[in-house]
TrEMBL record, chains A, B:
PANTHER family assigned: HTH-TYPE TRANSCRIPTIONAL REGULATOR BETI (PTHR30055:SF234), HTH-TYPE TRANSCRIPTIONAL REGULATOR RUTR (PTHR30055)
Keyword Amino-acid biosynthesis: no
Protein name from the UniProt record: TetR/AcrR family transcriptional regulator
Transmembrane feature ranges: none
Gene3D superfamilies: Homeodomain-like (1.10.10.60), Tetracycline Repressor, domain 2 (1.10.357.10)
A UniProt-annotated Pfam family: TetR_C_24
GO function term, MF aspect, one: DNA-binding transcription factor activity
Family annotation (InterPro entries): Homeodomain-like_sf (IPR009057), HTH-type_TetR-like_transc_reg (IPR050109), HTH_TetR (IPR001647), KstR2_TetR_C (IPR041490), Tet_transcr_reg_TetR-rel_C_sf (IPR036271)
Length: 215, 215
């Protein structure tokens, strides 16, 4: 292994280490809420020392923000990017809705914390640096929501979706999906097919409400 | 005024006093979150002393639970009772959905805290007495959700609603509506007509997805 390959392997290790810390933090925040979680709790779930956590993150708030940012990345990567594909708008939207529903289940700790993040943001009381980071996270969320707004607008232009208040409907649509993090907890022995069935049921409902060919 | 009338007036005053404390608590919890709110904050919003708050409630947790219970009462009274009226199921459901949407806006502090209450409940870490109260609140919520399950089941039996997984759809429907407490904040000069327009848009969307006569 030459020096740059070694350096690269080191970078990969570092990225893996960071991802493991972040996963543990997401689980800790989900379990006990932001206020009640300590760096010790995160280290405990990680099966490591506090030093390991502090190697990657300098504070609980930084961990919280990065969990939030990672959830936004998951959404944009897993569902938002579908908006840019070349297909009829209603088909793209249907796949985006299903993908978002599944993301809520398969990445539950991250997505759950993302919902808690909204709370924290609304509650205010942060430092200037934290507010800057929060603003960046809000921008990521807005960009993600905009993908849904765009695709629904295209669906209306294509005649597949009835004329409606796009922003209001996107709030309802994403609210119904984000609410999954409130009621969903994986069951013993649950399979991908079980999750797919739940996502399909919600998707059918939420897409049907948009169709033009309705009463 | 005879003695019983005076006693009754006293009871009314006490109920009004209690309602005012509860309203202040709901606003304080909404503004700062449960953890960051003190009895002092509630007294401050009320424009009264801590003693006034303690006259009605012995702890912050008790206040929180009563805010939650009041929000459940508002929902059952304002929307849930429509389920028992004599009318086609889809008509009743449509009025329940619109009423729930409007309740989220007009009683925002209570309803917002009710959503936060879910968080606290999920996070665990309460005393046995608090867990008993939480279980009662969860029973109230379940009874309320059951009204929606019943009416949709009746709508399917009447042939107006397509066959679907009723519990899953109720979760989507109420999630879309409860999410209002995340994005909605009253605007300067907003009117009842503005709120009605938002509620109507969401209601149309959420009811259309259920109709039998769809693709």
């Amino acid at each position: 292994m030459d020096r740059s390959a070694r350096a690269e392997a080191g970078e990969d290790d570092k990225a893996d280490g960071r991802a493991a810390v972040l996963e543990a933090a997401a689980r800790a925040f989900m379990q006990d809420g932001y206020a009640a979680t300590s760096i010790d709790d995160v280290a405990g779930l990680l099966g490591a020392t506090k030093g390991r956590v502090y190697y990657y993150y300098r504070s609980k708030a930084d961990l919280f923000f990065d969990v939030h940012r990672e959830s936004m990345r998951q959404n944009m990567e897993g569902a938002g990017r579908i908006a840019l594909e070349d297909a009829p708008a209603l088909d793209r939207l249907e796949r985006m809705v299903r993908a978002h529903a599944l993301l809520m289940m398969t990445h539950l700790p991250f997505q759950r914390v993302s919902v808690l993040g909204v709370e924290m943001h609304l509650a205010g009381s942060t430092t200037p640096r934290q507010r800057k980071t929060l603003n960046e996270i809000v921008e990521l969320r807005d960009a993600y929501e905009q993908r849904f707004v765009d695709v629904i607008s295209q669906g209306i232009a294509e005649g597949a979706i009835r004329p409606l208040d796009v922003k209001m409907v996107v709030r309802g649509l994403l609210g119904a999906l984000n609410w999954i993090t409130v009621w969903y907890r994986p069951r013993e022995g649950e399979t991908d097919a079980d999750r797919a069935r739940m996502a399909d049921e919600l998707t059918t409902y939420l897409i049907n409400g948009l169709r033009r060919d309705e009463a």
